[in-house]
Amino acid sequence: MNNTHFINVRRDLHQIPELGFEEFKTQEYLLTYIKNLPQQFLEIDTWKTGIFVKVVGIAPTRIVGYRADIDGLPMEEETDLAFKSQHKGNMHGCGHDFHMSIALGVLTFFASNQPKETLLFIFQPAEEGPGGAKPMLESEYLRRNRPDMMIALHIAPEYPVGTVATREGLLFANTSELFIDFLGKGGHAAYPHTANDMVVAASHFVTQLQSIVARNVNPLDSAVVTIGKITGGTKQNIIAERARVEGTIRTLSMSSMEEIKGRISALVRGIEVAFDCKLSIDFGSNYCQVYNNEEVTKSFMNFVQNRANSELIECREAMTGEDFGYFLEEIPGFMFWLGVDSEFGLHSGSLNPNEEAIPFAIELLIDYLKSYNLT
Ligand SMILES: CC(=O)N[C@@H](CCC[C@H](N)C(=O)O)C(=O)O
User: Fold this and answer.
1) What is the rounded distance in angstroms from the CA atom of residue 254 to the CA atom of residue 174?
2) Cystine design at 121: which of 25, 53, 337, 350 (Cβ 3.0–4.6 Å)?
3) Which ranges does the record mark as transmembrane (predicted)?
């Protein structure tokens, strides 16, 4: 099959983005596709909305794992594409439609070309939250079928098609979600002295948060605190009894993560005193850093550098997060950025990656896995 076929697969998947652990139609689409492949080397299992597909090797001495995440984001698509999201309010705004179609392309090749080593394709739910990698790793299936090596990619809008960017060691940050609920006293807009306004309290809190990275974190140790969502109140002339801020913390070291969480807790106590209200903090789900094993990453980087028609970029670490970090905490492997050349970035409603990157990535990965003495 021509690898441009997977552009159509991507377009199908792009229309049905679903949130973490709700990827029912996505799972059904993937399973239908996989069950139509030649089955003689395949073993298919499911885990929640995820899927494991084993391609049993001819003379296996190890399992090589390839992971693709499958969930979408709760955001409105702003493109005019003919194949735009049909699930209003959800979008594949982080490229997981690319990740899945590339994985299907590589799987399709090996389903008809039995590898020497066993390959395990892992279609993982809930990367954007609350995190599927950790519970999947703890599943009975992955305890019995532990890969000896793991590979994954993530699309990179800022790089051209034909490029691969990665580095040995630290690639992505530690992350922690952040949810804070404010409870004060509502009232009539004309009587502020009888109420405790949670819109004002939340606004002060968000402003104070900005001082943490600027004044508490060692400038040589990068960190990010972003509030992506604020909600509060019910009507323009009612003082808000409740507000909620939602955000994320990113650090390159665990000590900075702990320090930032400590500072946030202190600011929360201060807001409670200053505004005579109650706040509750929930640090949500936490992902460990993505750390590329030096040896296998180096061999992959050499492979890309020496391959015709592909360009290697040795990139800096990024403040993005990825629960693939949990795989790499236990299993040697690597993640890389795949150039997709989009004017609009990840998590933008206008993200429009160049689909030529799909056949490029499928061929690159097939070549790499072949060179890895798999066939
Ligand atoms: C590659 C990417 O964009 N990953 C997400 C991971 C989200 C982690 C977690 N749910 C959080 O928001 O902290 C990212 O936002 O970096």
Assistant:
1) 7
2) 53
3) none
Q: Are residues 189 and 60 in the same domain?
A: no
The DSSP line for 64-81 is: EEEEEE---BSS------
Whether residues 268 and 254 fall in one domain: yes
Domain count, the chain: 2
Whether 247 and 314 map to the same domain: the answer is no
CATH of the domain at 189: 3.30.70.360
Q: Is 0.80 topped by the overall pTM?
A: yes
Question: What's the token pair of residue 106?
Answer: 């590589």
DSSP 85: -
Last residue of a domain, one of 261, 286, 311: 286
Is 18 one of the annotated active-site residues of the chain? Answer: no
The Å distance, Cα 283 to ligand 1 centre, comes to: 14
How far apart, in whole angstroms, are the C-alpha atoms of residue 337 and residue 358? Answer: 13
Rounded distance from Cα 156 to ligand 1 centre (Å): 14
Quote the domain boundaries for residue 165. 5-172+289-374
Is there a catalytic annotation at residue 128? yes
Is 199 within 8 Å of 240 (Cβ atoms)? yes
**DSSP symbols for 87-129:** STT-B-TTSHHHHHHHHHHHHHHHHHS--SSEEEEEEE--TTT
- Is pLDDT of 374 > 60? no
Is the domain of 58 the same as that of 121? yes
Q: Are residues 107 and 123 in the same domain?
A: yes
Terminal CA-CA length for the chain:
19
Same structural domain for residues 159 and 22?
Answer: yes
Phi then psi for residue 293, to 5 deg, are -60, 130
Residue of 322, 335, 336 to test ligand 1 pocket, by largest number of atoms within 8 Å of CB: 322
Q: What is the mean pLDDT of residues 30-34?
A: 98
Give 178-216 pLDDT, tens digit per residue. 999 999 999 999 999 999 999 999 999 999 999 999 999
Token pair 């051209």 is found at 160
Assembly ipTM: 0.97
